[in-house]
Specification:
Elements lengths: L3 E6 L4 E6 L40 E4 L4 E4 L2 E2 H7 L2 H10 L5 H12 L6 H8 L7 H15 L9 H27 L12 H10 L10 H13 L7 H10 L5 H13 L6 H12 L5 H9 L18 H17 L4 H14 L1 H5 L7 H11 L6 H21 L29
Helix pairs in contact: 1-8, 2-8, 2-17, 5-6, 5-10, 6-7, 6-17, 8-13, 9-10, 9-17, 10-17, 11-16, 13-16
The structure holds carboxymethyl coenzyme *A.
Amino acid sequence: MPDTLTIIDNRTGKKYEMPITHDTIRAMDLRQIKVKDDDFGMMTYDPAFMNTASCISKITYIDGDKGILRYRGYPIEQLAEKSSFLETAWLLLHGELPTKAEYEQWTHDITIHTMIHENIKKLMDGFHYDAHPMGMLISTIGALSTFYRDGRDVRNPESRQKQIFRLISKMPTIAAFAYRHSQGKPYVYPDNSLSYISNFMSMLWKMTEPKYEPHPTLVKALDILFILHADHEQNCSANAMRSIGSSEIDPYSAMAGAAAALYGPLHGGANEAVLHMLDEIGTKENVPDFITKVKGGSGRLMGFGHRVYKNYDPRAKVIKRLADEVFEVTGRNPKLDIALELEKIALEDEYFIKRKLYPNVDFYSGLIYQAMGFPVEMFAVLFSIPRTVGWLAQWNEMLNDNEQKIARPRQIYLGHDTRDYVVMSKRG
Ligand code: CMC
């Protein structure tokens, strides 16, 4: 059987044969389907990209029906158990696990870029005392483009590599400064004798002690959370990164856009929304009423449902286990009981079963972050640090892909046909 699709246009009776590759036809092959020679040609209509592959990628694989997530072929569960965030970052960016020498060099290259320019610090100082840390993060990432003007040389792989070091390295510093600013506390400069995660925790929480010593269980937990959040193929923010990056702007400007996409409550802002929802529910006893309200169309069960996963999000499973380890150190987050009750009732309820709505990554991660001492406003910031790796891997892959061009979707225009301008005195 040939790998082709035959289309008969009933308007003209004409028959077209389209090649099928990877269960996909090329949208441009449809353009030949016309009624008249001067027609534009057939397009597909796909709001929100529900069924459109916008790129070929070798980075992350998701099977939403089976609840599978793999980075470069490695199951997320194995990476969470055995790898580290920096090793996973290398894997996502380079395609293979690093050798010992590569890993050491990589760790060194990331570590030596942790400092930010004093003027960036001053810029962050300018934010209002109650500025949302995610707004500060987005603006500061964008501002980095004014400091690293070599970042515009996006066709140069060496330059790209340098910006990748800078961004992965500076994100924890900017995130921690945003947090300290919102707390009215002095900034803590990076300590390059610490690991990536420990240094981040030191910049967040060091007070007057000469050296900050984070709890190893919490370091490990944050490392695992970072692995789980590092990439998620063509999600809203990755698509923003690729789309903005396709104009060949520097990665700082593109990443400010990606981070802005992540800030939304339907994307990375969801774990913040989960905590607000749990606060609103208040007690375990109120859960059934809340579920009834959601089913009645009033609000959504935040942290539930996913565009791709129609099964339990594999990241949520790892996080649920991780929560127990963290709570042993920090004490149990009392909202866990409400969350567990919500999950139990929702997973048995016809409404959620029919729509295949399961807990996603955000359902439990916020509870851990809160138990570790993060205010809810920091949650999207915490998501952005590891996702930097995914954004950069997607950006790099896009720039290396000869088929990619500036992203420019089509539209179906249903507005007015041409009409003559009417002077104001004659308008109704
Ligand atoms: N609570 C209640 N009903 C829901 C929910 C929910 N969380 N999510 C989807 N539905 C219903 C929705 O009302 C619709 O029902 P009907 O067919 O009767 O109209 C049906 O399920 C399909 O929903 P949809 O909006 O067409 O699905 P989508 O693929 O466009 O949306 C989603 C995916 C993640 C935006 C959505 O499930 C949602 O809003 N979830 C809550 C927010 C959330 O947790 N987001 C984090 C996503 S995971 C982290 C990330 O990748 O960023």
